[in-house]
Design a protein that fits this description.
The longest helix is centred in the N-terminal third of the chain and has 19 residues. By secondary structure, the protein is mainly α. Strands 3, 4, 5, 6, 7 and 8 form a 6-stranded mixed β-sheet that branches. The protein has a two-stranded antiparallel sheet with strand order 1-2. The radius of gyration is 32 Å and the shape is globular. Helix content is 65%, strand content 5%.
C-alpha cells in the first residue's frame, strides 16, 4: 500500500482516482507553462500505478526516458532530473495551496527520490470516526472534575485521529467560530522604587497568568508576547493606562482585557492593587486589593486571579495546589524576566536556583529547559524538558499537553510534537498560539506543505486573530523549508506590512530579516539594506539576540560569497554581543566563522586561535556541534605541516559523527582523510577515500560542501594523471556553481580549470582561468590561494613563451611562511624556480632551489617534499629545456 509521509491514510486512492487527479493537475494554471514538470509527473505516476520497480524510477532512467538524454547520459554532470523534480515539488505545492486546495486526492513527490505517493486529502468518512467537535466557549461551565474528564476524553480522541493525519479537519474552520475572551497581564508598578523588590512584579505576573490560563474559557496571553509588546511600545508597568494607550495595546497584542496595578512592600507585608481594564472602551472593570505576608505571594496572586475571573463572569476553579512554591518564586521570576529580556546567561543562574528550591515543579523545569535551549545546551535542555514532562501528573490535561509539546519540540520529536499540537488546536481552534506551534513543528519536522495548510487555516480565524503578522511569518518559514524563496519573500513582506500597521516593530524587524534572506537567495539587489534596517530596529529596541542573529546571517552570507573582510567584521560584532549575553550558539558560530575566514585569508595562526577557542564551546553544546570545528582545525593544522595531530582530529570527528549518526559529518570526515592522504603522498588511497565520501555528501545535498569536495577530488585525480576523470569532476562542480553565481567556490573552480588546462598543455586557457582566479583572490584577500593562482599563471605564461610576464607574476613580495599555507608557499617558490630557469643564472637557480628544498623539508609534508625535489631536479638538470617541457 502506498502511503504519504506526513498524512498516513487508512485507504489508498484507486488508480483511476489518481489518474483523474493527474488530469486536473494537467489542466491547471499552475502547470500551464511547466511542460517538463508535467511530463515527469505523468511518467512517474503511471509507472508507480502499474507497479514498476524502483529501477525505472532512478535518475538515470528518467533522464533517458523523460528528458531524451543519450545512453551516455551522466546525472552527475547534467542534473536535469534533480532540477525538474525540485521544480515539480514547488509546482505541486503551489497547486495544492490554490487551485487544488479542495481536491479529494493529493499526489506528492517526497524529497530524496522519484517515487510519487498518493493519498486522500481526508480519510473517507466510512473508514474513520470523525474528530470531536471543538469545545464551544462559554462563561458558565460544568464542575471542574466533569470538565477535566471531558477534556481528557476529547484529547484521547484527538490524538487517535491525529495519528492518521487529522490536521485536515483544521484546514477549514467552522463558520462563526466563537472566540474566547483574551486577557494579558502587563505587570505591576513597584511603589517603593527599590531595585531589590522589582522582581515581585514579574512574580505576580507569572502566578496570575498561570491561574487565569487554567480556566480554558479564557485565553491568557503568553507573557513572552506581553514582553515583546512592552518593548515595541516602550512601556513600563503602570497602575493605570489611558484609553488611547489601551487601544494601542489591543492593536498590538490582540487582547480584550489587561491586568495591571501596583504593589508596595513594607516590612514583611505586601499590599497589591490589581486592576482589570477593557482595552476597547478603556473602562476600568475592577479594582482588587489584597495584602499578606511576603511569603504568601502565591496566595495573593491566586486570590487576585479568582476575583478577576469572577468579574468576567467565570466561576471559581475551587481549591487546588498553587503553581509555585514561595521559596522558588523569586528566582523563577527573576530568571524568566532575564530570559524574556534576551539574557539567558543571567536567567540560567536564577532558574537553577529555582529548580533546586522546587525540583518537582514542571513550570520551573520548563523555564530552565527553555533557558538551556537559548544557550545552545541542547542535551541539558532535553533533560530538563523531560523532567518537566514527568512532573505534570498533578496538572490539568491541557497543561500536560502544553508541557509535552515543549518537551517534544526541544528533543526534536516532531511526529509526537505535531500530534500534541494537533490535539490542542482541535480542542481550542481559536487559540492562535497552538496553531503557530503546530505550523512550526510541521516546518521543523520536514512537513512544510502541511504547515502551509495550517497557516492557511489560521488566516481564516476571525479578526483580529486571522491578520496576526506571525501567521505570515509562519508561512514564510514553511515556504523557505520548501525552498520556495519567492513565496517566502512575499509572505515575509506581508508580515512586515501587518506588523508595521500594528506598531509591532520587533515583529517588523524579524520579518524584514527573513525577507532579506529570501531576496539574497533569489539574487534580488538591496537585501543588504533591508537587513541593515532590521538590525538597526532590533538594536534600538534593545533586542541583542536579534542584533547578533542579524550580524551572523550577514556574516555567513558574506563568507559564502567570498567577502571575507566584511564577513570577519560582522562575525566580530556578533561575537561581542554573544559574549556579553552568554549566548553560546551565537558565540560558537562567530568563532567558527572567524576561524574559517582567517583560514581562507591564509592567516593560519589566527585561524587556529579562533578554532581552538570554539572547541570548548562546541563541547558544551553537544557532540553534534563538535565535528565541524574539529575538521576545520585539522585542515589548519595540516596546512601548517602538523599532519599527525591533524589525523587525530579527523579520526575524532569521524568517531563522533558515527556515534551521533551525522551523515554530513561522516562524509566530511572521509573527505578530510582523503585530503590528508594526498599530503602524505598516498594518491591512490586518497582517490578511494574521496569515492567513499562523495556518495554520502550527495545524499546530504548541501551544494557548498559538495562543491568543495568535488574540487578537492578533481585536483587529486589530476595529480594521479586521470585527466578525463578530473574533467568530469570539475564539470559536475561547475554545474553547481552555475546555480549560485556568487558562490565562494567560483574562484576555486577557475583555479581548478586552470590546472587542468595546464596539464593538457592548453596554455592559453590555463592563463585565462588562472588570471581570473588570481584577480578574484587578490580582491577577496585570499593570500594563500593567490600564491597558487600566481604559480599556475606563471607556468602557463612560460608555456606561451611570455617569460617576461611570467617573471612579473611571481615578483610579488616574499610570502610570509609563518602565516600562510605551506603548500601554497612552496608552489609559488617552485614557479619562481621555473622562471629563473629561463631568465636567471645558474647560481640564482641553485640558490632558489636549495631554499625551496630547505623550506619543504622543514615542514615534513611528503607530497610537498616530493614535488619540491622533482622541480629542483628539473630546473637544475635541464636549464635549457624547451618552454613547453619546463611548463609541464
Amino acid at each position: 500500500m502506498l502511503e504519504t509521509a506526513g498524512a498516513p491514510s487508512l485507504s489508498t486512492p484507486a488508480a483511476e482516482v489518481v489518474l483523474r487527479e493527474l488530469d486536473r493537475i494537467g489542466g491547471s494554471r499552475s502547470f500551464r507553462r511547466a511542460e517538463q514538470c508535467l511530463r515527469l509527473l505523468g511518467h512517474i505516476t503511471r509507472l508507480t500505478l502499474e507497479g514498476h520497480n524502483d529501477g525505472e524510477l532512478k535518475e538515470y532512467a528518467l533522464g533517458v526516458t523523460v528528458f531524451q538524454r543519450p545512453e551516455s547520459y551522466d546525472p552527475r554532470i547534467d542534473p536535469v532530473v534533480r532540477l525538474e523534480a525540485r521544480r515539480l515539488r514547488l509546482k505541486l505545492a503551489e497547486y495544492y495551496q490554490d487551485e487544488g486546495i479542495d481536491d479529494p486526492v493529493v499526489i506528492d513527490l517526497p524529497k530524496g527520490g522519484y517515487v510519487p505517493q498518493f493519498r486522500f486529502r481526508r480519510v473517507p468518512e466510512s473508514e474513520v470516526e470523525a474528530p470531536p467537535e471543538p469545545i464551544t466557549p462559554q462563561l458558565a461551565a460544568p464542575p471542574r472534575g466533569y470538565r477535566d474528564r471531558r477534556i481528557w476524553l476529547a484529547v484521547t480522541a484527538v490524538l487517535l485521529v491525529a495519528a492518521v493525519g487529522s490536521w485536515f479537519a483544521f484546514r477549514k474552520l467552522p463558520q462563526g467560530l466563537p472566540v474566547r475572551a483574551s486577557v494579558a497581564v502587563l505587570g505591576f508598578r513597584d511603589l517603593s522604587g527599590h531595585d531589590e523588590t522589582s522582581w515581585i512584579s514579574s512574580a505576580l505576573s507569572e502566578a496570575i497568568n498561570v491561574d487565569l490560563g487554567k480556566d480554558q474559557r479564557l485565553r491568557a496571553l503568553p507573557l513572552d508576547n506581553v514582553s515583546r509588546m512592552q518593548r515595541e511600545l516602550s512601556l513600563l508597568p503602570q497602575p493605570t493606562y489611558s484609553t488611547k494607550l489601551l487601544q494601542r495595546i489591543r492593536t498590538n497584542l490582540e487582547s480584550d482585557y489587561v491586568v495591571t496595578g501596583s504593589y508596595l512592600r513594607a516590612g514583611n507585608r505586601i499590599h497589591l492593587n490589581a486592576m482589570l481594564f477593557d482595552t476597547r472602551s478603556g473602562l476600568q472593570l475592577a479594582a482588587i486589593s489584597n495584602e499578606a505576608d511576603d511569603d504568601k505571594l502565591p496566595e495573593i496572586a491566586a486570590l487576585s486571579a479568582g476575583r478577576i475571573r469572577a468579574r468576567l463572569g467565570l466561576r471559581e476553579l475551587g481549591t487546588e495546589s498553587r503553581p509555585f512554591e514561595a521559596s522558588a518564586l523569586e528566582p523563577f521570576a527573576r530568571g524568566m524576566q532575564s530570559l524574556r529580556e534576551g539574557d539567558p546567561f543571567n536567567a540560567r543562574t536564577f532558574l537553577e536556583k529555582a529548580a533546586a528550591a522546587a525540583p518537582s515543579n514542571p513550570l520551573v523545569r520548563a523555564g530552565l529547559a527553555q533557558t538551556y535551549l537559548a544557550l545552545g545546551m541542547d542535551i541539558q535542555a532535553g533533560e530538563e524538558a523531560h523532567r518537566a514532562f514527568n512532573g505534570t501528573a498533578a496538572m490539568g490535561r491541557v497543561e500536560q499537553l502544553e508541557i509535552e509539546g515543549l518537551y517534544r519540540t526541544i528533543t526534536n520529536d516532531w511526529p509526537r510534537a505535531i500530534q500534541v499540537y494537533q490535539a490542542l488546536v482541535t480542542l481550542f481552534p481559536d487559540d492562535l498560539e497552538y496553531g503557530l506551534r503546530l505550523a512550526a513543528a510541521e516546518t521543523s519536522g520536514g512537513k512544510g506543505q502541511d504547515a502551509l495548510g495550517v497557516v492557511h487555516a489560521l488566516g481564516g480565524l476571525p479578526p483580529p486573530l486571522g491578520s496576526d503578522p506571525r501567521i505570515d511569518m509562519a508561512e514564510a518559514r514553511a515556504a523557505g523549508a520548501l525552498s520556495d524563496f519567492a513565496h517566502t519573500r512575499k509572505a515575509a513582506q506581508s508580515s512586515a506590512e501587518k506588523a508595521n500597521a500594528r506598531g509591532a516593530r520587533l515583529q517588523y524587524a524579524k520579518a524584514r530579516l527573513l525577507e532579506a534572506g529570501a531576496m539574497q537567495n533569489l539574487g534580488i539587489a538591496g537585501y543588504a539594506d533591508v537587513r541593515a534596517e532590521a538590525r538597526e530596529i532590533c538594536a534600538e529596541l534593545g533586542d541583542r539576540a536579534c542584533v547578533a542573529a542579524a550580524y551572523r546571517v550577514e556574516a555567513n552570507n558574506l563568507l559564502a560569497t567570498g567577502e571575507l573582510r566584511g564577513a570577519r567584521r560582522s562575525y566580530e560584532k556578533a561575537l561581542e554581543i554573544a559574549i556579553s549575553m552568554g549566548n553560546s550558539p551565537e558565540k560558537l558560530n562567530a568563532l567558527h566563522g572567524l576561524g574559517y575566514a582567517a583560514n581562507l585569508q591564509g592567516d593560519l595562526p589566527q585561524a587556529e586561535i579562533y578554532l581552538r577557542a570554539a572547541l570548548p564551546v562546541a563541547s558544551q553544546l553537544g557532540r553534534q556541534q563538535q565535528y565541524p570545528i574539529v575538521l576545520d582545525l585539522a585542515d589548519v593544522l595540516a596546512q601548517q605541516g602538523h599532519l599527525s595531530e591533524a589525523g587525530e582530529k579527523i579520526e575524532e570527528a569521524l568517531r563522533t559523527s558515527q556515534q551521533t549518526g551525522e551523515r554530513e559529518g561522516i562524509g566530511l570526515s572521509e573527505a578530510a582523510l582523503a585530503h590528508l592522504l594526498e599530503l602524505q603522498d598516498k594518491g591512490a588511497d586518497a582517490l578511494a577515500k574521496y569515492r567513499e565520501a562523495l556518495p554520502i555528501l550527495r545524499e546530504v545535498g548541501d551544494p557548498f560542501l559538495m562543491t568543495g569536495t568535488l574540487l578537492d577530488f578533481g585536483n587529486a585525480q589530476l595529480e594521479q594523471g586521470n585527466l578525463d576523470g578530473a574533467r568530469k569532476t570539475f564539470d559536475e562542480a561547475a554545474a553547481i556553481v552555475r546555480r549560485y553565481p556568487d558562490f565562494l567556490w567560483s574562484l576555486d573552480l577557475q583555479l581548478a580549470q586552470a590546472r587542468l588546462s595546464l596539464y593538457e598543455r592548453h596554455y592559453s586557457d590555463a592563463a585565462s582561468h588562472s588570471r581570473l582566479a588570481l584577480q578574484g583572490f587578490q580582491a577577496t584577500g585570499r593570500a594563500g590561494d593567490r600564491l597558487q593562482a600566481a604559480a599556475v599563471l606563471a607556468r602557463a605564461l612560460i608555456g606561451l613563451g611570455s617569460v617576461t610576464d611570467a617573471a612579473k607574476t611571481v615578483a610579488l613580495p616574499a610570502p610570509n611562511r609563518a602565516r600562510l599555507p605551506i603548500q601554497s608557499v612552496i608552489q609559488y617558490e617552485m614557479a619562481h624556480c621555473y622562471v629563473l630557469a629561463k631568465t636567471g643564472s645558474r647560481a640564482e637557480v641553485v640558490a632558489a632551489t636549495n631554499a625551496m628544498l630547505m623550506n619543504a623539508s622543514h615542514y615534513r609534508i611528503p607530497r610537498v617534499q616530493r614535488e619540491a625535489l622533482e622541480v629542483s631536479q628539473a630546473t637544475l638538470g635541464s636549464l635549457n629545456h624547451s618552454a613547453d617541457a619546463v611548463a609541464r
